[in-house]
Amino acid sequence: MNKKILIIEDEKKVRENIGTLLTEEGYAVLASKNGEEGVETAIKEIPDLIICDIMMPGLDGYGVLEKLLKHESTKSIPFIFLSAKVEREDLRKGMMIGADDYLFKPYKSEDLLKSIDTRLKRIQTLKGEFVLPQKAEPSGSLTNDDKIFINVSGKPNLIKIGEIVFIAAESQYTSLKLADGKSFLVRKSIAGWEKLLPVKNFLRIHRSTIANLDYLVKMEKSYNSSFLIYLKNVSEPFIISKRYSSKIRQITI
Q1: Least confident window among 80-94, 112-126, 222-236
Q2: Are both 79 and 140 inside the same structural domain?
Q3: Which of 75, 93, 122 marks a domain boundary?
Q4: Crossing angle of helices 12-24 and 109-122, rounded to 10°
Q5: 213 — phi, psi (to 5°)?
Q6: Residue 96 φ then ψ, to 5°
Q7: Angle at 42 between CA 86 and CA 24, to 5 degrees
Q8: How many structural domains does the chain have?
Q9: Residues 44-60 as b or e (16 or more Cβ within 10 Å = b)
C-alpha cells in the first residue's frame, strides 16, 4: 500500500506542486488548504506523514502540531514544517514543539523527498511513549527483571529491561533496540535512561549511546585510547569514546 502524506498549505500553487511531486513518486496525497481543515483531515485519515506550512491564516503550523500532539492517534505521525521563516528562534520553536524536520522555502525537491524518505523509514521503528513502572522512583535504578510500558498509538507494549540491547539518541528521541529485533522510539534522553538502568548491566559508551553488556560478544582496542565493542545480533560495532573508555577498562581488568 502506498504511503499516505497530508499536505497542509494555504497557497494553492505550492500545495499543488508538492502534491504533483509526491504523486509522481508513488505516494497517496491528501491536501488541506488551512490549519483547521488539516487537523480534521489528519484525525480522520491518519496519514503516514504530514507536511505543514507554518504561516497560515487562522490556525498556524505550530497550532496544528500542538493540536495533533494531543490526539492519541496522531501524536506519533512524523511532521515536517515548511517555512519561509529562517530565524533560529523559529526553527527552535518548531523543533521544541515536536517537529521531526524543518525545511526552508524555497527548498529543493530532492531535499523534501529525502526528508520524507528518512522519516518514513524511521517510523518502521515504533514510535511510542515511555511509562515508568509505578514502583520505580525517577531517581532510582531499575533491574534487569523490571518491565516498562511503551505506548504506541494507545497500545501498551510491555518490555523487560534485560531485553534492551542498546539505546541510541535520535534527535529529540531515543531508540531502543530489543533482543527480538524490534525497535522503539521514545521521547526520553540518554541521561534520563542512564539514571534508571541497572549500572551492572548497562554502560554509557558514548554521549549518545548506552549498551547492555549482557549482549557483549567481543571487544577490541581501537585508535586514540578508544575501544570497539560488538553486541549480539548487531552487525556494526560501537565505538567507545575516549571520554567513557575508563569505564570499559574497569571491566577488562
Answers
A1: 80-94
A2: no
A3: 122
A4: 60
A5: -70, -15
A6: -65, -35
A7: 75
A8: 2
A9: eeebbbbbbbbebeebb
The average pLDDT across 219-243 equals: 79
C-alpha cell at 243: 571520554
Phi, psi at 35, each rounded to 5°: -65, -45
174 — phi, psi (to 5°)? -125, 145
- Parent domain of 141: 126-252
Q: pLDDT grade, residue 66 (50/70/90)? A: very high
Spatial CB neighbours of 106, under 8 Å, sequence gap ≥ 6? none
Q: What does the pLDDT look like over 159-210, one tens digit per residue?
A: 899 999 999 887 667 889 999 888 888 888 888 898 889 988 998 888 889 9
Strand 216-221, strand 209-212: pairing = unpaired
Mean local confidence (pLDDT), 92-111: 82
Burial class (CB in 10 A: 0-12, 13-18, 19+), 222: middle
Specify the DSSP element, H or E, that contains 3: none
Distance separating alpha carbons of residues 215 and 235, to the nearest angstrom: 13
Contacts of 168-172 with CB under 8 Å at 24 or more apart are 168/208, 168/209, 168/210, 169/207, 169/208, 169/209, 170/122, 171/100, 172/95, 172/98
Per the confidence metrics, is the pTM higher than 0.70? no
Question: What is the arithmetic mean of pLDDT over 111-117?
Answer: 92
CATH code of residue 137: 2.40.50.1020
What are the tens digits of pLDDT across the range 8-36? 999 999 999 999 999 999 999 999 999 99
For residues 72 and 149, state if they share a domain: no
| CATH number of the domain residue 49 falls in | 3.40.50.2300
